[in-house]
Amino acid sequence: MTFRQQFILTVLDKGLLALIVAVAGYSLTKSIEAFKGRQALENDLAKARDQKQLELLQSQLSQFYWPVYLRLQMDNVVWERLLQRCSNDHVRSQLGLRIEKDFILPNHEATSNIIEANIHLAAPESQLMDAILKYLRHVAVYRALRAGGNDGIDPIAVGELWPGDVFPAVREATLRKQRDFEALLKQRER
């Protein structure tokens, strides 16, 4: 083989090798760019998903869980005073009646309205839903008794017990949703 043929063969060999490296480099670059594009898209989708989840939790907490929880807590706080409406002491008796008329019954009404208007946001699990339905039934019987002029009769007298599980169930769900909300906020800060 002549020098010229050997030179041409070497140039072609090196050229072919350079071409293969260039094609491989180009393919690798395109693959890396595609990977980065997919990664960016996945990150954007994750951010959008987290934002929607954050918005949902915020709506659930602000329009359902916290308002219902606080109203039930207010009922708990004044409950003992309500019982005084049966007291022999005229002042305590009147105080208990006023608390029932001016606070408990309107508070039950407002709580029921919040529940009815926003139950779709709550998406409660079955145990919480059962407790909420018992609460609504109790309030309906309470209202019906008062509307019928039965001021001295409580729902318990007609077999409608206070749903003692409603407050703990709402408290638990509220605090769980609040923890989820705060965890998602912290996650977004990273």
Our count of domains comes out at: 1
What value does the Rg take, in angstroms? 34 Å
Mean pLDDT: 89
Taken from the alpha-carbon principal axes, the silhouette is rod-shaped
Query: In DSSP terms, counting alpha (H) and pi (I) runs of 4 or more, how many helices?
Result: 4
- Give the class from helix and strand content and strand pairing: mainly alpha
| Sheet of most strands | none
Helicity, as a percent range = over 70%
Low-confidence stretches: none
Helix-strand topology string: HHHH
> What is the number of strand segments?
0
**Distance between the ends:** 67 Å
* Estimated share of beta-strand residues: under 5%
Overview of this protein structure:
There is one protein chain. The protein has one domain. Helices cover 84% and strands 0% of the residues. The longest helix has 81 residues. The two termini are 67 Å apart. The model has no long low-confidence stretch (mean pLDDT 89).
Topology:
Blueprint (H helix, E strand, L loop, with lengths): L2 H81 L6 H33 L3 H22 L18 H24 L1
